Amino acid sequence: MLTLVYAFNFIDRQILVILQEPIKIEMGLSDTQLGLLSGFTFAVIYVTAGIPIAYWADRGNRRNIVAIALAVWSGMTALSGFVQNYVQLLLARLGVGLGEAGGSPPAHSMISDYFPPEKRATALSLYTSGIYIGILVGLAFGGILAESFGWRKTFMIVGVPGVILAGLLLLTVREPLRGRWENAKANTDRPSFKQTMFVLRQRRSFWYFAMGCALTSFISYGNGNFFPSFLYRNHGMSIADIGLVLSLVAGVSGAIGTIAGGILADKLTVRDHRWYAWLPIVGGLIAFFPYFYVLIGANTTGILIVLFFVGIANSLYLGPSIAVSHAMVPSRMRALTSAVLFFILNMIGLGLGPFLTGLNSDLLASVSGENNLRHAMLITACMGPVAMYMFYKASQHVTRDIDANTAS
């Protein structure tokens, strides 16, 4: 159920990506405005609200918080179909971001109480695969719905089922015993925000993992949010075809990579905790050079095939990174730890990625012509080695940080 909720999270988030070309045409928007709409402004409210909601989740009923959040973001998605101008659409997307802020941190905390430490990376990766289920469904049906009913009705059709799912979540999911796999003291302590941040400041690898995730997602959000536009403008594909093809390529490959990352992390980190960081490095190295072919290749079928395998490699990082973050802190700090991780990830990845890609696209229009978006996406892709370096730095401290939490 939590994975299904996360899928709805990304259906409602990504539906804008497949609809942005008809929205751009109707409202006369620039690529910078599209980047702000799908990236920075959404990310600001998402991460700002995420921290106090996560603090609440470390004290309250996490299932209820997730259900409320789901109802809010789904309702605001439906309302997006009624907007009349850019500002109204921006406000509606801010509402979606506010709701989605209450989704993952409480869910992460619940999953870490459902599963013992040696199975958490797999469990959290299965949950994280909801991203790609959402991308698959959102892109595939979003394109078809957009061409059949227009972008306004598509928002409405996509938003309403999430409100219904919120009620089903309350009826079918139980709140797990908090800290069931840890000592009894962890079950009763209620650390303050200051105490949680004090612990995180002692965990050097956490901050490197956060930056590695942020820079990896800078590429995936920065270019992923514009990939439908890239295929539309540079490869002449229709919106319906783009939605169907990208849903299969990005959705399936991302789910495979995410689940594989969790399974491999659970198996490999039994021998060496540094595999939490080494797995994202391996994925980044495999994906880096082939990704440039995806952006410069002329054969549409060829680039989509390569993109499938790049997607698998580039998705190995998130499940292990969430799992290792939870391994560093007591159970009552997990929701807030996830929120801090996602604050950094989304401010840099979701916030700056699409915005800077869109801004570079507009700035390059006078010199690159119809290839302005392609060249902007190539610039964004160059962040890959920096992300890998951050994971390398995390590998130097991760064993000590996990041991420090176990000792406490």
Automatic annotation (TrEMBL):
Keyword DNA-binding included in the entry's annotation? no
Q: Which CDD domains match?
A: MFS_spinster_like
Enumerate the spans annotated as Major facilitator superfamily (MFS) profile domain. 1-399
Annotated transmembrane regions: 34-57, 63-83, 124-145, 151-171, 205-222, 242-264, 276-296, 302-323, 335-356, 376-392
Stated membrane topology is: Multi-pass membrane protein
The family database entries (InterPro entries) matched by this protein are listed as: MFS, MFS_dom, MFS_spinster-like, MFS_trans_sf
* Pfam families referenced in this protein's UniProt entry, alphabetically: MFS_1 (PF07690)
Which source organism? Answer: Congregibacter brevis
Q: What is this protein called?
A: MFS transporter
Q: Where in the cell is it found?
A: Membrane
In terms of superkingdom, the source organism counts as Bacteria
Provide the alphabetized UniProt keywords: Membrane, Transmembrane, Transmembrane helix, Transport
The answer to whether UniProt assigns keyword Transmembrane to this entry is yes
